C-alpha cells in the first residue's frame, strides 16, 4: 500500500526480440552501437564495421581496416539534423572518425603510441550544429579533446584539437564519460577509478604541423607531445563511485549527475570552480549497476542499469521498471536508443547480435497518482510554507517510512493535493524519526525556505540534509526543491575506527534511534552559527547527544547516558531564557517503564560546541550524568511526548502511553541545586481506547492527541484536568505520529492543520 494510483493496460508489451546473428564472413562481433531504433553498427574482431537494418535484418558492409583487428572501440553520435558520426579507436593509438553517410570523407589521427583506452562523444552547449566534441584516453592518463566539424550530409569532416589533459595517477587511468557545463567554460568527466574531475576548456592550443582545419595528409605520425602542456583537473572527487568506476556524466538544469557501478547516482554542482556533492540516490531496489540517466520532456528521470543478468529501464516517477530484458549482464557490449515513438536495446551474446524493439510508451503503465511510500509511514514533520506570487502558500512536509526512504511533499490545501518533490534513500533500515532545525549558514533569501532535516532509524543511522525550497511556477508542484546531503553517522562505523576496541564491549548492531530532537538550532545566537546539537532516544537504553558542524559536514557523538537501562522511546528538548541571563538547555526523555527523566544539559552543550575543529579520530563520549528530576508518569511505555513553554519560566509536559492514558505536568526551572521543579500534574486514564502515539500542545489550554484507535481528539486543559472538546475519525490505520501547525481554514478562520502518519498519510484542518 503506497497511496499511489496506476493504470495498467491489459495488452501485451509489444516487444519484438530478434536474433540478428553475426555479420557474414567478417569475424565475430565485438562492439555494437545503435544509430537509431532502426539501424545499428557492429565492429568485428577482424576490424570490419557493418550496418544492419533492424526491421529486415539485412547486413551491409561499411568499412574494413586491419588496424582495428582484435581490439577496437566504437562510438556513435547523431548530430542535430545532420549526419551520424562514427568514432573508432585502435590498439596502436589511432582514432578514426567518419560520417556514416559519407565514409570516404573521414579523418584520422594517431594520438597515442599505445592503445586508445576509451572514446566518448559530448555535445557542447551553444556550439554549431555541425560540430561535436570527441574525448579520447590513452596510456599514462593522457586525454585528448578533439572537435569534429562537418557540413550537411557529413561533407568536409575535419578534426580540430582543442585540448590536451592529464588524468591523476591511479590504477585505471582513463576516462569513461564527459559532459560540458552550460557556463563557466568547464567540462567534467568520470574515470574508471570512480573519480569525478573538473577541467577548464581553456583557449585553443597552438596548432602545429598537421593541425590545420584541413584533413591531414597522413595520419601515421603520433600527435606531437611537446607543443602544448597537458592540463590537470581544477577539482577532483577521488573514488566517489568506488573502484568499479563512473559509468556516465551528464548536466541538467545547471547540476551535474554521475552514475556508477556502485548502484547509485549522484547529484553535484560547481561552486567557486569546485565540484561539490549534493546528494546520493539509489534509483531502485536491487539495481546494483547504474549505467546512465535520461531526462524526459515530461519531467521523468529514466535510469539505465543492470540487475543481475538483465537490463533494466527504471522510471523514477513511476517507481517501477519500464523494461527488464535478460541479456547476460552489463559487462558485454550493448546499446540503448530511445526515440520519440520507439526504443531499442541491442547486445552481443554468444557471438551473435540481438535486438529488442518496442514502443517508447508500451510498458502498459500509466501513473495517475504518484506513490508515497511502500510501507508504513512512521514519522511526519512540517517544514514550513513557501509563498509564491499570486497563489496561496504551499506547505512542505517530510515523511519517513519503514521502506527506508524519506519523501519531501508539497501540500496544497486549496485543492487537497500532496505532490512528492523528492525522495531521500540513504538509509539502510527503517526510518523511525524526523526532526527539523530552522536557520541556515547564509542570510535568508526572500521567497526561499531553508531548513535542516535530520532523519534517524534502524542500524543506529543518522542522516542530515539541507533543504532549499523556493517558488517555481513552472514546476509541477509549484516548488523547486534542492537537497544537499550534509553529514551522516553510524555507531558501527565509529566502532570500526576506534582504537583499543578489544578492551570494550561492542555496541548492539541492531540499535535503533526511536526519536530525534533538536536541542540547539543553527539560529541560536549564543553558539557558533554552524553548530546544531541533536538528542537521540535509542533502543539500547541510552540518550545520546550529537553536534553537527554543517560547514565542516561533520556529525559527532559527544555525550551519552544509559540511565534508563531499557529502550528509550521519546526525547524532547526545551530552553529556558531568563531575563538578563544565559540560556539553559534541558532535555526530557521517556522509556518503556513510563518514567520521564529531566536532564540539565547546559554545561554539556557549552562544552560540546566549544570543542576544537572535528578530526578523523574518534573520542570517547562524555557522560551525561544523572537526571535532575524523574516523574513516574505512566505504568507502561511512553509513545508520545511534547513540551510547551508557558509564562513565568514554566513548561507544560504532555505524554501519551500504551495504555491509552495522557499525563500532563507543569515543571519550572529552579536554582542550581534543584534545576527542575515539579509543580503540578494530572492524569487522564482512558483518553483513548488504544495506544496514544501522537500528542501536541497547541496552546496552554488546548491539546491534540491521536491514537491507534484512529481518532484525533481535541482537549481543553484546565485546572480540573482534561475536558473533551471533540473528535474526528481518520481512515489512517496504525497511527504512528502526529504533527500540527497553525493554518487558516475556510473564510480565513484561524486553526491548525494536523498531519497523521501511519498506514498512509492524512492532513485535516481543525478550528482553534
UniProtKB/TrEMBL annotation:
GO-annotated biological processes: tRNA methylation
Segments crossing the lipid bilayer = none
- Chief place of localization: cytoplasm
Localization annotation = Cytoplasm
On whether Transcription regulation is a keyword of this UniProt record, the answer is no
Keyword Electron transport among record annotations: no
Q: Which InterPro entries match?
A: Quino_amine_DH_bsu (IPR011044), tRNA_Anticodon_Mtase-Reg (IPR051973), WD40/YVTN_repeat-like_dom_sf (IPR015943), WD40_repeat_dom_sf (IPR036322), WD40_rpt (IPR001680)
Checking Gene3D superfamilies in the record gives: YVTN repeat-like/Quinoprotein amine dehydrogenase
The record's listing under PANTHER family reads: WD REPEAT PROTEIN, WD REPEAT-CONTAINING PROTEIN 6
Assigned protein family: Belongs to the WD repeat WDR6 family.
Subunit composition? Interacts with FTSJ1; the interaction is direct, and required for 2'-O-methylation of position 34 in substrate tRNAs. Interacts with IRS4. Interacts with STK11/LKB1.
Q: What is this protein called?
A: tRNA (34-2'-O)-methyltransferase regulator WDR6
List the source organism. Answer: Alligator mississippiensis
Show the taxonomic lineage: Eukaryota, Metazoa, Chordata, Craniata, Vertebrata
Gene symbol here is WDR6
Amino acid at each position: 500500500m503506497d497511496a499511489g494510483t496506476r493504470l495498467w493496460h491489459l495488452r501485451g508489451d509489444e516487444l519484438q526480440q530478434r536474433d540478428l546473428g553475426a555479420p557474414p564472413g567478417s569475424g565475430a562481433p565485438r562492439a555494437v552501437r545503435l544509430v537509431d531504433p532502426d539501424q545499428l553498427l557492429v565492429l568485428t574482431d577482424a576490424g570490419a564495421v557493418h550496418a544492419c537494418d533492424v526491421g529486415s535484418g539485412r547486413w551491409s558492409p561499411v568499412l574494413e581496416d586491419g588496424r582495428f583487428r582484435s581490439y577496437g572501440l566504437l562510438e556513435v553520435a547523431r548530430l542535430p539534423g545532420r549526419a551520424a558520426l562514427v568514432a573508432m579507436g585502435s590498439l596502436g593509438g589511432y582514432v578514426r572518425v567518419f560520417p556514416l553517410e559519407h565514409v570516404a570523407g573521414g579523418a584520422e589521427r594517431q594520438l597515442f603510441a599505445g592503445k586508445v583506452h576509451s572514446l566518448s562523444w559530448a555535445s557542447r552547449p551553444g556550439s554549431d550544429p555541425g560540430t561535436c566534441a570527441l574525448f579520447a584516453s590513452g596510456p599514462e592518463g593522457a586525454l585528448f579533446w578533439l572537435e569534429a566539424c562537418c557540413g550537411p550530409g557529413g561533407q568536409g569532416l575535419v578534426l580540430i584539437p582543442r585540448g590536451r589533459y592529464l588524468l591523476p595517477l591511479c590504477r585505471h587511468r582513463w576516462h569513461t564519460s564527459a559532459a560540458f557545463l552550460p557556463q563557466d567554460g568547464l567540462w567534467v568527466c568520470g574515470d574508471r577509478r570512480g573519480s569525478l574531475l573538473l577541467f577548464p576548456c581553456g583557449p585553443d592550443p597552438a596548432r602545429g604541423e598537421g593541425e590545420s582545419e584541413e584533413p591531414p595528409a597522413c595520419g601515421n605520425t603520433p600527435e606531437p607531445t611537446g607543443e602544448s602542456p597537458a592540463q590537470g583537473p581544477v577539482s577532483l572527487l577521488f573514488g566517489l563511485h568506488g573502484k568499479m568506476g563512473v559509468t556516465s556524466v551528464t548536466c541538467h538544469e545547471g547540476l551535474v549527475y554521475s552514475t556508477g557501478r556502485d548502484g547509485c547516482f549522484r547529484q553535484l554542482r560547481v561552486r567557486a570552480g569546485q565540484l561539490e556533492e549534493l546528494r546520493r540516490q539509489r534509483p531502485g531496489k536491487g539495481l546494483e549497476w547504474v549505467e546512465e540517466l535520461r531526462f524526459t520532456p515530461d519531467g521523468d528521470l529514466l535510469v539505465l542499469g543492470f540487475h543481475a543478468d538483465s537490463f533494466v529501464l527504471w522510471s523514477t516517477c513511476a517507481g517501477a521498471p519500464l523494461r527488464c530484458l535478460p541479456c547476460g549482464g552489463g559487462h558485454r557490449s550493448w546499446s540503448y536508443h530511445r526515440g520519440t515513438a520507439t526504443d531499442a536495446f541491442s547486445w552481443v551474446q554468444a557471438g551473435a547480435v540481438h535486438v529488442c524493439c518496442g514502443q517508447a510508451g508500451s510498458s502498459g503503465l500509466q501513473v495517475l497518482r504518484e506513490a508515497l511510500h511502500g510501507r508504513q509511514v512512521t514519522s511526519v514533520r512540517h517544514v514550513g510554507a513557501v509563498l509564491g506570487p499570486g497563489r496561496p502558500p504551499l506547505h512542505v512536509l517530510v515523511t519517513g517510512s519503514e521502506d527506508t526512504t524519506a519523501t519531501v511533499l508539497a501540500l496544497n490545501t486549496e485543492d487537497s493535493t500532496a505532490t512528492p518533490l523528492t525522495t531521500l534513500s540513504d538509509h539502510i533500515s527503517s526510518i523511525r524519526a524526523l526532526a527539523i532545525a530552522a536557520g541556515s549558514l547564509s542570510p535568508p533569501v526572500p521567497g526561499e525556505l531553508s531548513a535542516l532535516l535530520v532523519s534517524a532509524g534502524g542500524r543506529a543511522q543518522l542522516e542530515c540534509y539541507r533543504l532549499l525550497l523556493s517558488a517555481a511556477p513552472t514546476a509541477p508542484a509549484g516548488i523547486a526543491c534542492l537537497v544537499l546531503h550534509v553529514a551522516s553517522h553510524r555507531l558501527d562505523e565509529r566502532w570500526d575506527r576506534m582504537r583499543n576496541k578489544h578492551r570494550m564491549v561492542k555496541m548492539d548492531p541492531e540499535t535503533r534511534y526511536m526519536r530525534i530532537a533538536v536541542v540547539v538550532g543553527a539560529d541560536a545566537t549564543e553558539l557558533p552559527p554552524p553548530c546544531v546539537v541533536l538528542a537521540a532516544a535509542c533502543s539500547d537504553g541510552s540518550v545520546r547527544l550529537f553536534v553537527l558542524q554543517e560547514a565542516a559536514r561533520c556529525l559527532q557523538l559527544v555525550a551519552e547516558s544509559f540511565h534508563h537501562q531499557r529502550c528509550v522511546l521519546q526525547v524532547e528538548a526545551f530552553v529556558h531564557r531568563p531575563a538578563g541571563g544565559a540560556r539553559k538547555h534541558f532535555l526530557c526523555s521517556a522509556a518503556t517503564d513510563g518514567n520521564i527523566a529531566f536532564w540539565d544539559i547546559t554545561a554539556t552543550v557549552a562544552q560540546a560546541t566549544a570543542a576544537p575543529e572535528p578530526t578523523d579520530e574518534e573520542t570517547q563520549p562524555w557522560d551525561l550524568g544523572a537526571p535532575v528530576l524523574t516523574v513516574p508518569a505512566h505504568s507502561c511505555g511512553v509513545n508520545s511526548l511534547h513540551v510547551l513553554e508557558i509564562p513565568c519560566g514554566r513548561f507544560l509536559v504532555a505524554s501519551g502511553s500504551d495504555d491509552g492514558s495522557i499525563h500532563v505536568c507543569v515543571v519550572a526551572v529552579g536554582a542550581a541545586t534543584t534545576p527542575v521543579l515539579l509543580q503540578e500534574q494530572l492524569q487522564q486514564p482512558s483518553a483513548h481506547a488504544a495506544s496514544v502515539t501522537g500528542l501536541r500542545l497547541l496552546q496552554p489550554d488546548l491539546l491534540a492527541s491521536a491514537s491507534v484507535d484512529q481518532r484525533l481528539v481535541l482537549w481543553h486543559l484546565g485546572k480540573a484536568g482534561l475536558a473533551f472538546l471533540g473528535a474526528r475519525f481518520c481512515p489512517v490505520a496504525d497511527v504512528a505520529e502526529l504533527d500540527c501547525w497553525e493554518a487558516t481554514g475556510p473564510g480565513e478562520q484561524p486553526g491548525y492543520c494536523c498531519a497523521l502518519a501511519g498506514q498512509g498519510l492524512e492532513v485535516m484542518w481543525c478550528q482553534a
